[in-house]
Amino acid sequence: MDIDARGPRFGAAVTTVVLAAVLITGSTWLLAWQVLAFALGASGGVARSPYGWLFRKAVRPRLGPPAQFESPQPPQFAQAVGLVFAVVGLIGFTAGPNWLGFGATGCALAAAFLNAAFGYCLGCETYLLVRRVTVRAQ
Questions:
Q1: What is the pLDDT of residue 135?
Q2: pTM of the entire structure?
């Protein structure tokens, strides 16, 4: 079943704010929260993530009907990619080196910002590229 395309973009906007706050404050707890949010989105789909739930309950009822739908697999893959970067960032901030935490979190922030501001999902595009390559390889 396809999902409202505005949901993942809303999630990316919240993620952008959370990751920016992590870089500003250095809060490992806040980054751990984002790891959890990414893990739930990667395992159950973006609709099952905390930001997907917030979109469904608080934002979508205030919007008109969706004009565009999308397949849930690319955003779910993007959540898994975000999870990897956030976990690496958390390792960097907790075990060191600190530059690893800043670098990995910064990469995740850049990807989330691209999606939130411009609707360009790097993880989704990577998913589609991998699908094209694997289909041609068969």
A1: 83
A2: 0.94
